Fold this sequence. Notes:
The protein has 539 residues and is an alpha/beta fold. The chain contains 17 helices and 21 strands.
Amino acid sequence: MKVVMGQLNTFVGDVAGNTEKVIQAAQATGTEEVAVLLVFPELTLTGYPPEDLLMRDSLHLQIESALSVLAEKLPRELYVIVGYPRCKDGRLFNAAGVIHNATLIAEYHKQRLPNYQVFDEKRYFSEGDAPCVVDIAGMKVGITICEDIWHREPADAAKRIGAELLVNLNASPFHRGKHKERWHALTLRTTEQKIPMIYVNQVGGQDELVFDGGSFATNADGEPAVVAPDFEEGCFEIMVERTVRGLEVVPGVTAATLSDVAAVWQALVLGVRDYVEKNGFPGVVLGLSGGIDSAVTLAVAVDALGADRVQAVMMPFKYTAEMSVEDAGEQASIMGVEYDVISIESIYEAFMAGLIDQFHGLNADTTEENLQARCRGVLLMSISNKKHRLVLTTGNKSELAVGYSTLYGDMAGGFDALKDCPKLLVYALAAYRNTLGYCIPQRVIDRPPSAELAPDQTDQDNLPPYEELDEIIERYVESDQSVEQIVAAGFAEKDVSRVVRLIDLNEYKRRQAPVGVRITTRGFGRDRRYPISWAWRKR
């Protein structure tokens, strides 16, 4: 039997478009002398995650229509497994259906519903309570969906009713280290059940989530037999044969495993591309400061969209170093993007003149610094408004964590590629991108980072070094460690207390920040939901 892993980039809510993708993939498969099974990702027809679209009756009417279209148009000799939401007896299930010979011959309902990190499926779905095994060309194929494979019971249940092969439909989003987690889970299941397993994952960006594909098949020993590429849409073939030992996956092409930084880079590029494309923007515009964050953001944008769809704007002020202007211009020239220099000095002075009565008798403070950022935000949003280009903000996770960003200034925009990237990772990404082709001036990487809002200012005038800051943030945000636990790990109590206090105080800013690509186990967004007003932060 030939199995085709349909690693699709679906579009949430586009039931007709997703259905057409399934049909095109099936028609391209053609007829074979052997039986052919096509397996597509979790919730293929709606895209993942559909969120509260699931509460609309009109969506479910579209699903029923799509299933009828598939039954009519899919080649009758093929076996096709697709995912979709299914209303039944007043309950909603995360379902997978098997279509063959113009008929829905079997349907499975997901038994384990994730309700952690970015997942909240229990808000919408009921748990299924029965396994599903389908006879395809004399081979007993068990069906599971995503979270099912992380638990033993659904696989056990399928094996008990005769499954010789398990297929698992997935919408498994990327984060650093996710590959190893998947391999570990599948290895456990295969060694427990002693049968081959096929893992088919979605690919593509959906708001802050990026799905990395990487579909694969393992034999009963847990060793990979076929591995599809990461971050690449396509259909990838597997041959399954019956031997004296049972069903076996014939070893085939195994895509190379990406390094950690390379995987993050691909996730950022795909996340930006799909957010721009799926929301219909003709291009993007960003502020290019001559600093590391905007330099990396520009490189991501060009890799995602092409130079002709990217505009960079340098907005100098009297505190802007000449080297910043030079480095921004050099990178823009290397990357071939539209590049403009617009001084904010006259704009700033006009604002200050208008505020002279309000500021009378008051000392200068961060207000004047923030006003510089807000002048730049006004310019970028005006360009966006006029040219319909999405503003890419350039803040990183370290800055967002401690509030070193300006509301309605450098936070003004529609998407933040680096939102979940700690500062040290940003430097690693810059170095990695230059290995693909030099584009980020080395001076940008080497010089101390600065917002250049005041004379001789650096990012770490009031913060611990990034080597310490990033780890404190990771421990507090991603691992939920207390101040006492972090101090016990070797960090100075005054530094930990200050950083933690800043993280807690700045939730109100993060609630107003644009979405951005999630690449850690806990980003600021779907999977970290803290109140803005709360007593604990006053400690």
